[in-house]
Amino acid sequence: MSKKKPKKTRLEFRKGHQGQRRERGLTEKFADSKDEIDTQNSQRITGKGDLTRRRTVKADVVSPEHPDAIQSIQIQTSDATVDGRVIRVHGLESIVELSDGQILRCAVRRVLKNLSTTQRHVVVTGDQVKVEPHGGNQGWIVRIEPRRSELCRTSKNRRHVIASNIDQILVVTSAAEPSIKPNLIDRILATAEQNQIDATVCINKCDLIAPEKLQPLIGSYAQMGYQVFMLSAMQGWGMNHLESWVQGKASAVIGQSGVGKSSILNHLIPGLSQRVQNVSLDNQKGKHTTTTAEWFCIDAKTSIIDTPGVRQFQLWDIVPAELTGLFRDLRPFASHCRYPDCSHHHEDICAVKDAVADGRLDPRRYDSYLQILDAPAFASDDADDTPWHEANQ
Ligand SMILES: Nc1nc2c(ncn2[C@@H]2O[C@H](COP(=O)(O)OP(=O)(O)OP(=O)(O)O)[C@@H](O)[C@H]2O)c(=O)[nH]1
Ligand SMILES: [Mg+2]
Ligand SMILES: [Zn+2]
Predict the structure, then answer these.
(1) Beta carbon of 260 within 6 Å of any ligand 1 atom
(2) If you placed Cys at 313, which of 114, 115, 137, 187 could pair as Cys (CB 3.0 to 4.6 Å)?
(3) CA-nearest residue, atom 14 of ligand 1
(4) Res 372: pLDDT
């Protein structure tokens, strides 16, 4: 680990943090208050009350391209810190596994929590952190190490990092119950491209339909260079291949509720019994059984992260000009468009539209592209419940 001292950095804090004026008797309370101890040791408050929302903290640089992405923030603290990994977050409490396997329930130091970012949570599953233990099985998270990758989406207009430090995404979908949603797969694949994380398509519940019905869809993803697995967690089909595929990597399963993400994990991780639940008989939708992202280690180099089912998958921070670059199959045609900033939507002369018209580009993928372009808030889970293979017969 680098011994380089963190730079002093000016950071924005949430409004309202300094809302309360000093009260009488503060000195007596001071000794009991952990947050105030942080303030004294590690932050120089400049200005008074609401006049300023900035503080100088010791911190590594915040990425210039992604000012919201915390690269590494450390508040000055004692040397009695240990390294760990956030394996689960429950509200204000983060469960951290230390390198010796010990589990600590940790709170995040207030100075980290109050950073003004658009992130839903400052600490996420997968984060590598420094923890200051404070008795029993408890501790304070005092540093979040730079993340090597983030899987993000937009949730309630904020940046939701589902998990960090992952090597690949397993986009899990089910052949039936609930029916396959290619548009949702496309969104997640585009997100993987955006976050520069490898992605693999896993079609689970292949025991429920004749697999050849899915061949056109599988073929189209395979042609783009995506590995596709046809699985049945119930029958154990394809599990050996998937097991070798995840070896030596940190993989996050992601997909709709009820597609069998936790069932797949139960197969891959000996002794694991993640809760699974039948899909609803009324609407064939999952019941959102898994409620928090959770990091499981299979061995020292292999981990799998279970995540809650996504209903909507809206890309974070996407501008139309970048979207084409996230669709592997559209990309080669786009460079032949007449206008360099062509959106492939309303332009009269467009190489992408030509490619769709003469069958070189899958119209379904082009449609997915348009849906993201036109209506980022589009809820793909609820869009169309006609099973894909029936609609395409
Ligand atoms: N027929 C069939 N059913 C399966 C298969 N895999 C999982 N299931 C069933 O599908 C239901 C949902 O499985 P879960 O593993 O809870 O799904 P999930 O994706 O983790 O769902 P959330 O946690 O809600 O996101 C359960 O009743 C499983 O038994 C499969 O390969 N075939
Ligand atoms: Mg689950
Ligand atoms: Zn175009």
Answers:
(1) yes
(2) 187
(3) 260
(4) 87
